Amino acid sequence: MLNRHFLIAISFAACLTGGFLAAVEPVPVDIGSRRELFVDRFLIERLENAALKLHEPQLAPPMSDPADNLEYGTVIKDGDLYRLYTRDGRGAKFDGDQPEVTRYCESRDGIHWTKPTLGLFEIDGNKENNVILHESPYCHNFSPFLDTRPGVPATERFKALAGVGVRTPTPGLVAFVSADGIHWRKLRPEPVITYTKEYAFDSQNVSFWSVSEQCYVCYFRHFLDQKLRSVCRTTSQDFVKWTEPTPLNPNFPGEHLYTTLTHPYFRAPHIYIATPTRFHPGRGESTDILFMTTRGESPYDRTFREAFIRPGLDPARWGNRSNFAALGIVPTSPTEMSIYTTPFRRFVLRTDGFASVQAGADVGEMLTRPLSFTGKELTLNYSTSAAGSVRVEIQSADGKTLLGFGAGDCPEIIGDEIACIVRWKNGSDVSSLAGQPVRLRFVLREADLYAIQFRSTH
Length: 458
What we know:
The chain is mainly β. It has 2 domains: about 30-55 and about 355-455, Galactose-binding domain-like (Jelly Rolls, Sandwich), CATH 2.60.120; about 60-350, Tachylectin-2, Chain A. It is about 5% helix and about 40% strand. It has 1 helix and 33 strands. The protein has one helix at about 5-15, and strands at about 30, 35, 45-50, 50-55, 60, 75-80, 80-90, 100-105, 115, 130-135, 145, 160, 175-180, 185, 205-210, 215-225, 230-235, 245, 255, 265, 270-275, 275-280, 285-290, 290-295, 330-335, 335-340, 345-350, 355-360, 365-370, 370-375, 375-395, 415-420, 440-455. It is elongated and about 75 Å long. The chain starts with a helix and ends with a strand.
């Protein structure tokens, strides 16, 4: 969107010269065939009698075979296998103390977990345990990920960062690599990321390979203005040399963000999902979990300021460190994704269902910014009531309805689907419009629109 002051300056200059100021054409957003979620206003130009709504994750029944309790946990879906990594403090007196270990669990469905006997480290007199790391201070916040970079060596298929800002001669984050996610080694003994401006690193610091940015990205903890827990970001091409960290300052006034847990959404990796813990030191050190997003190097989007997951009815969830989400929101069925939180609970949402454009009983509308796409069909992730409906209209960039693609040409879409193909009277083929700037107009009644995607085939 063009800066308002810039447009005023152009208009004033044109008036002074007696010239004619032509209408400034907005640059269309090229979404290609990417899936776009309505977790922000990235595609939205106008809402009428409709609003963006953050959806509340639902607590799933307790798991009959749970994993170890989550302390700075990470969940990775590796093919058909779910891998879980978590810290076990074992009575440590301070962060990074020697008793801490990192434990490993597995699951085939994300619900029933096993704790494999690995025999790697002797703990409390025997090796019959699931410990994969026992080295101070790295077990405090060991945070792995599955490296999806093309051509990554098989011996470095998994990577991790770990480290703290105190109680070590060289404070910073040390890089680890692994071929199987179980046997780990340091990539080099020295930290690969350091930050000397403010106290940093004493939380879960997360990293990943970014498909959209084509680099490694790390989000780590630091103290904003020496007072508020906040977030820094740095990038790398090789996981060894990192750029100068940039403070992101996503905090609202007086707000502590204890962790970020920023990671690419598995169905739209150009959108990074974050589920930070919000810390309230003045309210008995209580915590809750937020929802934020960011697209590449852009600032965090704070469209939704309210809590994503509240402490709830359990009194034990109203203390410090009581509400941490694990890194990694993963699919647990074709229509469901799971979020894991302390001590070991599972919350579920519909696929893509973090947020939606929602209209109630009165008809609402959403108009997108001009966009261009590739593909043959438009699909929607949507839900209506039995009385509700969705209609879709395709317009030119200047707002004129395109022949055959009007809302009146679109039969009412009624139901609840993850990938509904939009059809008009003449069918679903929109390939004649691919590559040119268009707008989408959605007419909604008692409906939620979660995501859209143009695609080439069924």
